[in-house]
Design brief:
By secondary structure, the chain is α/β, with parallel strands linked by helices. Helix content is 17%, strand content 30%. The strands form 6 sheets. The chain has an 8-stranded mixed β-sheet with strand order 11-12-14-13-16-17-22-23, with helices on both faces. Strands 2, 4, 5, 7, 8, 9 and 10 form a 7-stranded mixed β-sheet that branches. The longest helix has 22 residues, at 388-409. The chain is globular. Keywords: Fatty acid metabolism, Lipid metabolism. InterPro entries: AB_hydrolase_fold, Acyl-CoA_thioEstase_long-chain, BAAT_C, Thio_Ohase/aa_AcTrfase, Thio_Ohase/BAAT_N. Pfam families: BAAT_C, Bile_Hydr_Trans.
Length: 416
């Protein structure tokens, strides 16, 4: 059959938001013929990410990825979004970098003849970050540096501060995608961005307090309280904000530590030192990567207590999410410890969810899985744990939970 009649389709449209699912279909193939599907994107650093999967056309000459199993390649079985989450970088230890959310991430999908490798048909999926009418406002107010996302439509909307991870700079994808769900989101940088210190010797909680005040003052933000979403190193910042600052109603803590880490935290006269790592617990994997999962000691031990965040002071709601196979640190242990602290103080103001085979970076849905990357605190590449498919499913589940959590606790509920 001539390849001119073969068509690869991305449904319902080639354009969608990054967190949306698409249906990939190939039509016009010879019945039962093998076909290879490939995906490719180039990130903002120029790193190429790719996946491939082997399929067999059905009796009508079609492949529908939503119900046909992959027989080999980057994943096997029926995985509607496998060509997205299974993408791996050509450059090892690279996490997908998306700096500018004003432009979509372009994912090329190609169908090739399974026997000859000849290109049969291709299409590009434009995966955007901002709905039409959304505002993206760079923020330089006093010391505050970040970007404010305001959804289209008639507000006011619940407000959320989005804190990202160690490494400096600003990450906008999660904040922009969350804003599409009807929240005003402030992606707040905390070092190494637009005049903020590159290597801070301490973190000043009063800076984050200014961020909270700024967000609460926006006319599009409805009160009385706001939410915080954090991941990794910023988890302790989110817990500290919830414990010391007023006006916080709901805090999402993803794969964080219940104690302060890396850099001392200051608030007025209070100093929370960084929990010191136990270097002898650092391992090297067979592939030569650093595994720091057990490097941090138990913060509840007497000698480490000063580093614990006093979350018993907080009166907001918490969503603790932890990957059980996180190798950045023992996230499930820290999440359970934080939950136990609240419970011991008579507070049931939390939900705890754990994901058995997920790794460290729980991102927005369909983000390529990141098994290893350069670690700012370690100074070299570390292993992050997890299995791609389980990790991808955890990202999907958590994304729905986060929205539900914020919707139920930020709509005119009482605050801290």
């Amino acid at each position: 059959m001539a390849s001119s009649q073969i068509r690869l389709k991305i449904l319902p449209s080639v354009r969608c938001l990054f967190d949306k699912m698409v249906q990939i279909k190939v039509e016009g193939l010879a019945p039962l013929k093998p076909v290879e599907l490939r995906s490719k994107l180039v990130d903002d650093r120029g790193v190429i990410f790719k996946a491939s999967a082997q399929y067999k056309a059905d009796e009508t000459g079609q492949v529908d990825v939503c119900n046909a199993p992959s027989l080999g390649g980057s994943y096997t079985g029926v995985e509607p979004m496998g060509l997205f989450w299974a993408m791996a970088p050509d450059t090892p230890h690279s996490k997908l970098l998306k700096k500018n959310v004003l432009s979509p991430t372009q994912v090329e999908i190609a169908a090739l003849c399974g026997e000859t490798g000849e290109l049969l048909s291709s299409e590009t999926n434009e995966r955007g970050y901002m709905t039409e009418g959304m505002k993206r406002i760079p923020v330089q107010e006093g010391r505050i540096r970040g970007v404010l996302f305001i959804p289209p439509g008639k507000g006011p909307f619940p407000g959320i501060v989005d804190l990202y991870t160690l490494g400096g700079g600003l990450t906008e994808p999660r904040a922009s995608l969350l804003a599409n769900k009807g929240f005003v989101v402030l992606a707040l940088a905390y070092y190494g961005y637009q005049g903020l210190p590159k290597n801070p010797t301490n973190l000043d909680l009063e800076y984050f307090e200014e961020g909270v005040t700024y967000l609460r003052r926006q006319p599009e933000v409805k009160g009385p309280g706001i939410g915080i979403i954090s991941v990794s190193h910023s988890g302790a910042l989110a817990l500290s904000m919830s414990s010391f600052l007023s006006g916080i109603s709901a805090t999402v803590f993803i794969n964080g530590c219940s104690a302060n880490t890396v850099i001392p935290l200051h608030y007025k006269d209070t100093v929370i030192p960084a929990l010191p790592p136990v270097i002898k617990n650092v391992k090297i994997t067979d592939s030569g990567l650093v595994d720091i999962r057990d490097a941090l000691p138990d913060p509840a031990l007497e000698k480490n207590r000063a580093s614990l965040i006093p979350i018993e002071r907080a009166s907001c709601q918490f969503l603790f999410a932890a990957s059980e196979d996180d190798h950045n640190w023992n996230s499930a242990f820290f999440a359970q410890q934080a939950a136990a602290t609240l419970r011991n103080h008579g507070k049931e103001s939390f939900q705890l969810v754990t994901y058995p085979k997920a790794g460290h970076f729980l991102e927005v849905p369909h983000m390529p899985y990141c098994p290893s990357d350069f670690h700012a605190a370690v100074g070299r590449a570390v292993v992050f744990g997890g299995e791609p498919k389980a990790h991808s499913e955890a990202q999907l589940d958590l994304w729905e939970r986060v929205q539900e959590f914020f919707k139920s606790h930020l709509d005119n509920k009482s605050t801290c």
